[in-house]
Design a protein that fits this description.
With 432 residues, the protein is of the alpha+beta class. The chain has two domains: 2-77, no CATH class; 101-191 and 283-418, no CATH class. The chain has twelve helices and twelve strands. The strands form two sheets. Strands 6, 7, 8, 9, 10, 11 and 12 form a seven-stranded antiparallel β-sheet that branches. The chain has a five-stranded antiparallel β-sheet with strand order 3-2-4-1-5, with no helix packed on it. α2 packs across α4 (170-188) and α9 (279-294) crosses α10 (305-315). The longest helix has 36 residues, at 92-127.
């Protein structure tokens, strides 16, 4: 049951619903219980006169609740419902709890997917304006960055979540992956608001110079001759030119200019070394490399997230700032979302999300032949001290029935959500 209420009647304790798009308000979700007065001020700043609220989920009511016009039924103060009398078998409470857990699991996944889709659509719309309306393209990209930042301004840790549905076109998914993970990295490094805005805007636009390249030249893939490789590398200069037309800030322009430079001077186009690279560009360069390893132009060359992380650590450490690389590994988890693993009890699983405070204890979807996949509950390994991950696997190493059940996607797409469980950090670990 929900009713409508004037924003002037809002009180701490009310459970409210913002019937707006995800990018149109600064809160991580659109339905929540108000916990402090600052949230009320933000809601009033949205320009709404009324909004929906749920009395039965609220801990407070407006001063004149009887005068409100609810939808469907009179508004009354919330009361605690008595526990239902025990009926039927002893399994019923467990079954009810399982249904509730499955519903929450599905709702969380659907919310992340909707948020990703809305952000991806906004990115695509901004890209379409780069040539004809460059200043508007900048404004829209900065607005998208601000929306992402607003959702990250929570006290909780942030989980990096695997998207299991269609993640849009390759270019859009790549831009979103790089932007989301780079912003989470900026959060780890304590960048201030202006620096985060530049980081996010630069990350979303880092490949903007590719819009005038032929599709075949948009990736440094095998088979390109010397002239074609040079044309591919020119996308950096093209991107800086577009960035200047858009009126990007100096910090965002440096991200565009340096996102293929390496700390050891082996990058391009200027072979800059670490001391000449800005932090934001160094972050984007690393995240860009990781995502290109996981999501190359040819899926036959794709690495699993664990393989990509291991390669960066074992073979490319000289190319990236050590503090940024180590923080990246801790944040992504030793087994990043999308990794296929075998647990210490020999079951197979797909890593669905990672909380950076416990890199060896992600949330996993476990193969269980007794349950349909859509009814399988994800296990939070943080709450299971006796269960862990034994090893990472390639999807091709899975038995056929397990592969069909876990269904790892050929392309990896990420989004974020607030972590709900807090535990003491475990010791730092690096991928084997």
């Amino acid at each position: 049951m929900s009713g409508r209420i004037d924003v002037d009647e809002l009180r701490v304790g009310m459970f409210i619903h913002l019937d707006l798009g995800w990018m149109q308000h600064p809160f991580p979700v659109g339905s929540f219980r108000i916990t402090h007065a600052a949230q009320i001020e933000k809601i009033r700043g949205l320009g709404l006169k009324q909004l929906r609220w749920s009395p039965e989920k609220s801990d407070a009511v407006p001063p004149q609740a009887s005068d409100l016009a609810p939808v469907g039924a009179p508004v009354v103060a919330p009361v605690m419902a008595p526990e239902p009398a025990a009926t039927g078998s002893a399994e019923e409470p467990a079954q009810r709890e399982r249904r509730a857990q499955l519903a929450a699991q599905r709702a969380s996944a659907e919310l992340c997917q909707r948020q990703f889709d809305e952000a991806n659509q906004a990115w695509r719309a901004a890209q379409d304006l780069v040539i004809a309306r460059p200043e508007q393209a900048r404004q829209d990209t900065e607005k998208l960055t601000r929306a992402l930042l607003d959702k990250m301004l929570v006290d909780d840790d942030m989980c990096i979540r695997l998207l299991t549905c269609n993640a849009g076109d390759g270019a859009g998914a790549h831009a979103m992956n790089v932007a989301v993970i780079s912003l989470l990295m900026g959060r780890v490094f304590g960048l201030d608001d202006a620096e985060m805005l530049e980081l996010g805007t630069g990350a979303l636009l880092h490949d903007v110079g590719k819009i005038e390249l032929a599709p075949r030249l948009r990736h440094a893939q095998d088979g390109l001759d010397r002239d074609e490789l040079a044309a591919y590398r020119d996308h950096v200069a093209h991107g800086v030119r577009h960035g200047r037309r858009m009126g990007l800030s100096a910090g965002a322009l440096r991200v565009l200019a340096q996102h293929h430079e390496h700390a050891d001077g082996s990058g391009f186009p200027l072979r800059l070394k670490a001391e000449r690279l800005c932090t934001a560009a160094s972050i984007v360069a690393l995240v860009n490399r990781y995502d290109n390893l996981c999501n190359p132009a040819s899926l036959t060359q794709a690495l699993t997230p664990h393989e990509a992380l291991s390669l960066l650590f074992a073979q490319a450490r000289s190319q990236f700032d050590a503090s940024i690389l180590n923080s990246f590994i801790r944040m992504m988890g030793v087994y990043p979302a999308g990794s296929v693993v075998q647990l210490t009890d020999d079951r197979y699983a797909l890593v669905m999300s990672v909380n950076s405070s416990r890199p060896l204890k992600p949330n996993v979807l476990v193969h269980d032949p007794q349950l349909p996949r859509e009814e399988a509950l994800q296990l939070n390994l943080m709450s299971l001290p006796d269960l862990g991950i034994r090893r990472s696997l390639k999807p091709s190493q899975l038995p056929a029935d397990v592969l069909a059940y876990l269904a790892p996607r050929p392309r990896v797409a990420y989004f974020f959500e607030a972590a709900r469980i807090h535990t003491a950090p475990e010791e730092d670990a690096v991928p084997a």
